[in-house]
Design goal:
148 residues; Muramoyl-pentapeptide Carboxypeptidase, domain 2; alpha+beta; single chain; 18% strand; 5 helices; six-stranded mixed beta sheet
Amino acid sequence: MKISEHFTLEEFIFSGEAVRLGLDNNPGPSVITNLTLLAAVMEEVRTLLGGKVIVIHSGYRSPQVNKAVGGVETSAHCYGLACDMVCPDFGAPAEVARAILTSTIQYDQLILEYGWVHVGLPQQGAVARREALTKNSPAGPYESGIRA
């Protein structure tokens, strides 16, 4: 089901880990509403990146899937308000993160992670913090700013 011009609900809810472990990763109506908002922001990101295809690696995570992948309990992924993505035709994740960082796109968190970019939105009614972080490895700390 299309939730924006270039994004489908399925690509935001697919989880290889959920499939592998037999976990349900189907969102409820409020999460679908949030995913539609997220898709709209990702359309802005796609435009910023010259209309290049964005590949979503992780979007919505049910609490069980989030736990299985080692996500924090308060993860925006659990609310349909975050995705991890790449845009290979634009450039490396660091280039993508820097482009988003210097844009006017409203995000809550932008995290350059080891191999992808995390884009998170604020909860409804909250102000977008535009917090930028870098995490270089699964066990590494979060560092302030986009560092590549």
